[in-house]
Amino acid sequence: MAFNEAFLDELKTRIRVADVVGRRVKLVRKGREFMGLCPFHSEKSPSFSVNEQKGFYHCFGCGAHGDAIKFVCETEGLGFREAVERLAAEAGMEVPVDTPMQREREEHRRTLYDVVAAAQAFYRERLAGPGGVAARAYLARRELDAGMVERFGLGFAPEGRTTLIQHLTAKGIPLAEIVEAGLAVRPEGQNEPIDFFRNRLTIPIADNRGRVIAFGARTLLPDGKPKYINTGETPLFHKGRTLYNLDRARKPAFDAQSIIVAEGYLDVIALAKAGIANAVAPLGTALTEDQIAMLWKIASEPVLCFDGDGAGKRAAYKALDRALPMLKPGQSLRFAFLPDGLDPDDLVKRDGAAAMQKVIAEARPMIEVFWERERDAADLSTPERRAALQRRVEDLSGTIEDPIVREHYRRELKDRLWGLLRPARPVRAGAQFVPLRQLGPQTQRPSLRRPPPPKSRFGAAPPPVYGQNPPSLRNSPAARGETGAQIRRRESELAWLLCRFPGILLQDYEAVELLAFESAELESLRMEILHFAVECEVLDESALKAHLDAQGLAEILSGLEKQASFALDRSPAAEISPDEVLGRWREAAAAHRTLMALRPAVRRARGEWARDHSEGARRSLDEAEAAFLSGLQALSGENDTEL
């Protein structure tokens, strides 16, 4: 069967060629295209390209060329119909049945394109005629010149009730087709249709091929209601699957790898006037799932640009809720809010095009807007209400279908909840905290006070002697791999202290939050301890261990329990002084932070020495390495490390 043109157009709109090809070919983005090894012939260097903007693949080696449907046919041995049916199922589209009635309907659709085109010519003519004075005056106030009017095909629908109907019927167009195209309506209680658009500026809406399929229109009456209307659903036009100006914006958006979504037609035109050609708009409703999918075919993070007032934020939140379940790795939305009370045209007129560009450049990630909405709407005055906020953000993030994105949202929101809710936990001066049970055999308590390192103008390490080769770490224990082991051992100590004495969070939660471990395992453990502190009212060692076990961290915790050499006294808890615990924690944490802060300086100094064997570069390297080794001694408690 021959599928109708509209169905195939919509199918190609919903699927990305790169996604279809990427199932069989490893693609790498190269500028505006994707490149890979051709699946149709053997090659060692990639000559196979996918152009998402144009919707096709092409091999410069063997000449293979086609769209997503043809690729499925060629690589899976399917016929055209089978390939279309498979892709349609993936896109959630129902394949039309080929019947005489369907063929007649398709032919009728082609006729409706002609009807709408005739109406567009009529509106354009009336804008330039004597009756278009008010419309031209409005355009002048908006500072839209003849070039912009021509570019966007603006027109004028006169005031008469049947002016358009009379014009089209005089050309032999049946009244039924005028009504079916959405150009005329039958008012309730009346038999005769009237023009749908009257005394309004008309704005043509085109499909992806640039064919006019509908109109938006703005009233020219001071108190006219509603201010904007657009054509109703027709065989040609489905507002939830159409974006205004997509036919013009597609190429500049693809070139820039960025697409802007404004609130309305005239916002898009105002952005174009400011030099921002990659803007589109929904059609009087919040963005739909179909429209979001269309945007993601062009850019991975479309920017939604809204007015900064309450209505703009409500529109942004509706789009956010629609997009949330659809998020995928690398695919999200960003949000740009205009200064309160201004639309794009107002901002450009007041502050220039650069101000509009700045607003777009500062668009905020979706996670930030999501969190801000939930945080600002929450009442945090009681534990139950704080728990309600936590439950709400967990439930919303749980709607994300992609498991990877869902997990990252869950983690990010847990961190933000911790940052928001931690002040609610009282920090009592001199708070007592002891473990509720002992883990492992008793061992001798190590000394909690370390002897001070040798004093010098360089800190703990002796000063370097200049004029000789730099005392590089190549000749130190660090060069033999001991530095990493020492850091890991002391990171393990810090992690163990947190696990055995979670009450540290009561006294020093800022230090716990700011600390960062090089070990990915221990870093994940630290983050879960912070999450535990948010979720649990009592900082209890056994409860913390159960929480860590439930999070799949039992093996890491078990490894820490076996490293008894760095642990505090395993004698009964009552004999352990809270001051000793806190002092040991703060001493180790401070030394660790100092050492981590010194590492970048060593790397920079080494790079400078490699580029320039000057006296100054050698001196900088000596000082950086000496400071690093001093920090290492402080962290490890060893004073026998030699340069």
Reconstruct the topology from this structure.
Elements: H1 5-14, H2 17-22, E1 28-30, E2 33-36, E3 48-51, E4 56-59, E5 65-66, H3 68-76, H4 80-91, H5 100-128, H6 133-141, H7 146-152, E6 155-157, H8 163-170, H9 175-180, E7 184-185, E8 194-195, E9 200-206, E10 212-219, E11 228-230, H10 246-256, E12 260-261, H11 265-273, E13 279-280, H12 289-298, E14 303-306, H13 310-323, E15 334-337, H14 344-351, H15 353-361, E16 364-365, H16 366-377, H17 383-397, H18 403-421, H19 482-500, H20 504-514, H21 520-535, H22 541-550, H23 554-562, H24 578-611, H25 615-636
Parallel strand pairs: 12-13, 12-14, 14-15
Antiparallel strand pairs: 1-2, 2-3, 3-4, 4-5, 6-9, 7-8, 9-10, 10-11, 15-16
Helix pairs in contact: 3-4, 14-15, 17-18, 18-21, 19-21, 19-24, 20-24, 24-25
- What is the count of DSSP helices, taking H or I runs of 4+ residues? 25
Distance between the termini: 82 Å
Q: Uncertain regions: pLDDT < 50 for 5+ in a row?
A: 424-482, 569-574, 638-643
The count of DSSP E runs of length 2 or more, i.e. the number of strands, is 16
Q: What's the rounded overall pLDDT mean?
A: 79
So what's the CATH class of the largest domain? Mainly Alpha
Q: Beta-sheet strand percentage? A: 5-15%
Instruction: Write the CATH fold name of the largest domain.
Output: DNAb Helicase, Chain A
Instruction: State the strand order across the main sheet.
Output: 1-2-3-4-5
> What is Rg?
34 Å
Sheet with most strands = 5 strands, antiparallel
The CATH architecture assignment of the largest domain turns out to be Orthogonal Bundle
- The structural class is alpha+beta
